[in-house]
Amino acid sequence: MAAHGQSPTTSLTEASRSRIIRSVFTALLLDILAFTTILPLFPRLLHAYRAKDNSTALHWFIASVHSFKSYFTGQSQVVGEADTVLVGGLLGSLFSFLQGLSAPWIGRLSDRYGRRPVFLVCMLGNIVSSVIWLFSHRFEYFLLARIIGGLSEGNVQLSHAIISDVTSSAQRSRGMAMVGIAFAIGFTVGPPTGAYFAGIQRDLSEWLGLGLSEAQVFAPYPWAALFTLALLLIETVYIYRSIPETILTRPPPDTAESATASTNTPLPTHMSLEQAQTNIRTLKYIHFLYLFVFAGMEFTLPFLTFDKFHFSHMEQGQFLGLIGIVSTILQGGVVRRLAHRWGEKFFVTLGMTSCALGFFSLATWAHPREGGTWGLYFAAICLAVTSATVVNCMTSLVSLCCTAVDPTGQPLDLTDRKGQILGDFRSMGQLGRALGPIVACSLYWLKGSAWAYTAGSLYISTIAGFFYLSVRPPRSAKAKTH
Fold first, then answer.
1. What is the pLDDT of residues 84-96, one digit of tens each?
2. Contact (CB, 8 A) for 351 and 226
3. Could you read off the pLDDT of 438-459 as tens digits, one per residue?
4. Between helices 172-198 and 155-166, what is the axis angle to 10°?
5. What residue segments make up the domains of the chain, in order of their start?
6. Residue 261: DSSP 8-state
């Protein structure tokens, strides 16, 4: 049901809708910058915690990873660099797993009480998480901060829900692409920004005049944590001032004008309730399967560039930055303009096919011999296409199923559960993102990079075929297929 059982009644002007989408984009960009600040610091943070205390939790994590590796390799080795890095991966998986647990509940609460209050509560949780991180001079406190942050991170799905509230089906993909652009910019700018603040040598405790050593009060690299906290505080104030409640907003009607004169735009989108429910269920499972392998293979890229190509931190940053920049350009210049005209299904299929080709390139053409880096950078371009298309266009498909009408022109009984459905969809993806790196790194350890990326390419190809054959997007008789 809609908030407090009410039906959508509020109409917004086109200028108001555009302003809300811009506000969502700005808030989400701040959120992703805050989230990505910590990413390059994980190995150094864990090294610092190992050096400064005998944390039972940290040593348990490291011992578990080392025992797992020793069991499969049959060798008892000294705990090394890879063990510490993989603990960072486990913490990242824990964060995604907790997001997967909380996402359905965040969606249901936003349907019942509204997007805005739930958004602000999530921001409160993120702020508490950052405060604990700032003062986490022991690893247990840092772990608590990650747990609270994972359970509170509902900003992405709430952004999707708000955009769905205020856009027509013809505008949906353009709005959803803004989320992808925010991600691409955030993941390009956030990690080097975090590395910069981690490099500040001034003692924060001394700067604040606390009279204690920094190590007694704050986490390692506290300036990065302080910067993250500042971003989240700014984001919270911005959300409070700029993003209104949208759950009772009536989307604009689909018209020829809103379809930007596309000859293959459905006016409006039609689908039976049974087919919509089947699509949503299928897309949830595909989201899990896709992110299970994509996130896992993506996590191994720093290992590949370090082990095989001996990239420095700067070279790794440039490589990942290339993916982010190309993805931003594609989302802003191609996907946002053409997804609804050519069909979200077309772009999802294109992105998955590009992903399979990218993994195949990493398996066969990317090698450290002279001239072999072209295969690595070709794969980077392919993965940028994937990042620009698959998740955002699948999210648009789920949202379109929620707001489609049946053949008689009556709205389906899904519109008032849009937050819940988008939350369930995101939950499945986050669970895949949590489990994928563990399996992918195991394959990378045991079988080598060529075997792992070949398996990933075949896996993604299978998922692409299943998606193309099983998902029928809401389209009228006017829609062209690709």
1. 666 777 787 888 8
2. no
3. 888 778 877 788 898 999 999 9
4. 150
5. 12-249, 267-476
6. T
